[in-house]
């Protein structure tokens, strides 16, 4: 036969189960004591964060003030430098203007000099030609002639000029020998003869070789040998 449970008193259950243990107050006090340092640390950490945030804000404000002052000083310095550069550039422009004016004056003087040279060079060449021809005609032996310049003032001995090839009328460059004697004139080949003739008579048409040599002798001051 099954065993029937004995009745339980609720008053006993309340006393044994719901009633706190006799050392509950001590337990709670110990728990509070254990958690108090952690809570204090958290509170201190929060205060430290707030203090750091305040300090950071002050530092940022100081940095902003410093940067503002630095920008103002830098702006003043750049403004001063720009003024100095403008003054220097103005002075340089003035100097270049003065130089341009001086160069303009020099150009005018050179233009006048060029005009004088345009007159003097032909006169000097003509005078030199006359003196050399006179020297060859009256004071030099046939084997000791002086060099006579071309009408443009060029001294021909050893110069390379435009001559004529031995075949046809094709022109070529030729080196002119020294005409230090009458025999040197007669010894000229055809290109050399044409080269000398064109030098002494630039505006005349080229005749025969024999006629060219006679005219060359006249040009260097030997009219008697040209007959």
Summary keywords:
single chain; 227 residues; mainly alpha; two-stranded antiparallel ribbon; 5 helices; 67% helix; rod-shaped; Mug135-like C-terminal domain-containing protein; Mug135-like_C
Average pLDDT confidence is: 80
Largest sheet: 2 strands, antiparallel
Total domain modules: 1
Structural class: mainly alpha
Question: What share of residues are in beta strands?
Answer: under 5%
Rg of Cα set: 61 Å
Helix content: 55-70%
**Uncertain runs with pLDDT below 50, 5 residues or more?**
none
DSSP summary, beta strand count:
2
Alpha-carbon distance between the two ends:
187 Å
Dominant shape: rod-shaped
Major sheet strand order:
1-2
Number of helices: 5
Order of helices and strands: HHEEHHH
